UniProtKB/TrEMBL annotation, chain A:
GO cellular component, one term: plasma membrane
Transmembrane segments: 32-52, 72-94, 134-158, 178-205, 212-235, 263-282
One Pfam family here: ABC2_membrane_2
This protein's UniProt keywords: Membrane, Transmembrane, Transmembrane helix
The protein, known as: ABC-2 type transport system permease protein
Native source organism of the sequence: Prauserella sediminis
Stored PANTHER family: INTEGRAL MEMBRANE PROTEIN-RELATED, MEMBRANE PROTEIN
GO MF assignments: ABC-type transporter activity
From TrEMBL, chain B:
GO molecular-function terms, A-Z: ATP binding; ATP hydrolysis activity
Name by which UniProt lists this protein: ABC-2 type transport system ATP-binding protein
Keywords carried by this UniProt record: ATP-binding, Nucleotide-binding, Transport
Domain of life of the native organism: Bacteria
Pfam families to which the protein is assigned, alphabetical: ABC_tran
PANTHER family with a match to the protein in the record: ABC TRANSPORTER, ATP-BINDING PROTEIN (PTHR43335)
Length: 287, 328
């Protein structure tokens, strides 16, 4: 039980705040609806694959990447569907989910007047950002994990013999395959943390969650367009979205790590910048 | 609209009066060119129930937000329970309960869940102490039964009460209530009044802002009047009202003798239905009574005549150009 008399605390323990934050996030109907819809995506992809002619589906995905080969390959290997689903959703839907989480965390709480309650308790602003960032991080991890999980389940259903073949033609052991999926989930989550950190920064500047959603989504679209313009190739190393198709590399044997590492470092930079901006704004913000 | 350039008074006033639960000196806040709060020297004596009055847009809420460290002042200093704000918020705020700018809660959670979330951030509560503290607070504002219902379905009055419960999760030294009776029916208003009376009885300092003058007159021991961002009056409510109308109502059966005795002492007096009314411009109340008793006039009752807070407020806030700035 409790320690009898402690010196009067100046602020509540961070672990308690994180628990309260997670309870708030996962009690929210919207959060559950988004996770549910994301979970459906691999299922829909799986159904589409079994119904559609595999050769017709090969036109999907941008040229130059292996997106085009992914969907047909998913019919032949359990390993491919979860990775394909993560790759597809990472282009738009998962960043949208991360933005939603970041928007609710600060802008949403400001607009309902609930952020003030914690500031008055008091919760220091650095600690507040830490708790909010952990909340966004947990939610994005859950979003990526849910897609991977239903992806694996769907793949097992439509691919009864459980082949674990890679795009390179080799076959993986079960632990190795699990490792590949975990790697993909971790890598996607890191990308989403980068998006979430930027969302948090915008979220600290506004009290309208819609502004955050629109900015992040607009940013993703603009980055994608910029990435497709060869004349702007000097800009491409700075675009986070440029690396997002390299997740397919997880399906090769051996894994070509260069692009994945490059993407991870980029995400870490965006993460650091986003959190710094969010912190700078939050400490001077009127509550 | 000119800025006051008076130096900030720091030392002496602190020792003279009673201890102050909150105190501002030279407090000023500007948003661009708009001056929201202008050189406010507010004193909230410990144990007082201070009513903060002012028309809409007079700077009440901004002042409160600066007191609580939510807003950084442009100039001036704020002391809350003896700690400088906003730097020492961690020392002051655990003992302060506040309901600012209306209740803020999540519509998809129940009232109780909302309070649990708020209580998780209260430094004074242990993990095990949170649920009982929440239940106590709900009971205190009469929401025990509605605690399990979603906040979305609450009436305006229930929302307001839940906000009050949030301010009362932990025993406080200072409770700050910004327009607590907004949206409440008369019964709800009475309940808030009784909560404030209980807090006052327990020695808790209460700062309540309101535009309902009758409300303030009924519950407060002190008032502070803001107008256009400036503090135009503050002090003990009774003293403020008395200093406004210097008159003494004396009940007597012998009106003629009373008037004669007073006129002989050069005191202005006129008969009223049950006695005389004496202007206290030249003499204090005890002198008047001594004069009357000395002349053998039977005095049954003597009391200071009071104008209402409404008159005082109207005079202080109507034409701000000429309103005198005074404190008592």
């Amino acid at each position: 039980m409790d320690v009898m008399t402690k010196p009067a605390r100046r602020t509540a323990p961070a672990s308690r705040l994180v628990r309260a934050e997670l309870r708030w996030i996962f009690r929210r109907p919207r959060t559950l609806a988004v996770l549910g819809l994301l979970a459906l995506i691999p299922v829909i992809m799986g159904i589409a694959l079994t119904v559609a002619d595999p050769t017709a589906a090969s036109s999907g995905g941008p040229p130059g990447n292996d997106g085009g080969n992914l969907l047909p390959a998913a019919a032949a290997s359990v390993l491919v569907l979860p990775i394909a689903a993560l790759t597809m959703t990472l282009q738009m839907l998962l960043p949208l989910a991360a933005a939603m989480s970041g928007a609710d965390a600060l802008a949403g709480e400001t607009s309902t007047g609930t952020l003030r309650g914690w500031l008055l308790a008091p919760v220091g602003r650095a600690k507040l950002l830490l708790v909010k960032a952990l909340g966004v991080a947990t939610f994005t991890l859950a979003a990526a994990a849910v897609i991977a999980a239903t992806g694996i389940l769907t793949a097992l259903v439509i691919n009864g013999d459980g082949t674990l073949s890679t795009l390179s033609g080799t076959t993986l052991s079960i632990p190795d395959a699990v490792g590949r999926v975990a790697l993909a989930v971790g890598w996607v989550t890191l990308q989403l943390w980068a998006v979430g950190a930027i969302a948090l920064a915008i979220s600290a500047f506004t009290e309208h969650p819609m502004v955050v959603l629109a900015s992040v989504l607009g940013g993703v679209i603009v980055f994608t367009v910029l990435g497709s313009l060869d004349a702007l190739s000097w800009l491409h190393p700075f675009l986070l979205t440029e690396v997002w198709w390299s997740l397919v590399d997880v399906l090769r044997d051996p894994v070509p790590a260069a692009d994945l590492i490059d993407g991870g470092l980029k995400a870490a930079c965006y993460l650091a910048i986003g959190l710094s901006l969010a912190y700078a704004r939050l400490v001077s913000k009127d509550g | 609209m000119t800025a006051h350039a008076e130096p900030v008074v720091a030392g002496p006033s602190q020792q003279e009066g009673p201890a102050l639960a909150a105190r501002t000196r030279g407090l000023r806040k500007t948003y661009g060119r708009t001056v929201a709060v202008d050189h406010v020297d507010l004193d909230v004596p410990e144990g007082a129930v201070l009513g903060m009055l002012g028309p809409n847009g007079s700077g009440k809420t901004t002042t409160i937000r600066m007191l609580l460290g939510l807003v950084q002042p442009t100039e001036g200093e704020v002391q809350l329970l003896g700690h400088t704000m906003p730097e020492r918020a961690g020392d002051a705020l655990p003992d302060v309960g506040a309901l600012v700018e209306g209740p803020g809660f999540h519509p998809f959670l129940s009232g109780r869940e909302n309070l649990l979330r708020l209580a998780a951030a209260e430094p004074r509560l242990t993990a095990a102490g949170i649920p009982p503290a929440v239940d106590d607070a709900l009971e205190r504002v009469g929401l025990s039964r509605a605690g399990g219902r979603r906040y979305r379905g609450y009436s305006l009055g229930m929302k307001q009460r839940l906000g009050l419960a949030g301010a009362l999760l932990v025993p406080r030294r200072l409770v700050v209530l910004d327009e607590p009776t907004n949206g409440l029916d008369p019964a709800g208003t009475r309940e808030i009044r009784s909560v404030i009376a209980d807090l006052h009885h327990d020695g808790v300092t209460v700062l309540v802002s309101s535009h309902l003058l009758a409300e303030v007159e009924a519950t407060c021991t002190h008032v502070a009047v803001l107008n256009e961002g400036a503090l135009v009056a503050q002090g003990d409510l009774t003293e403020l009202l008395e200093s406004e109308s210097a008159g003494l109502e004396v009940s007597t059966t012998d009106v003629t003798a009373a008037v004669e005795a007073l006129r002989a002492a050069h005191l202005a007096a006129r008969p009223t239905p049950d006695g005389v009314r004496v202007e206290l411009t030249r003499a204090a109340a005890p002198d008047v009574i001594a004069t009357l008793v000395g002349a053998g006039v039977p005095v049954y009752e003597a009391r200071r005549s009071r104008t209402g807070l409404e008159d005082l407020f109207a005079r202080l806030t109507q034409d701000s150009e000429e309103a005198p700035t005074w404190t008592s």
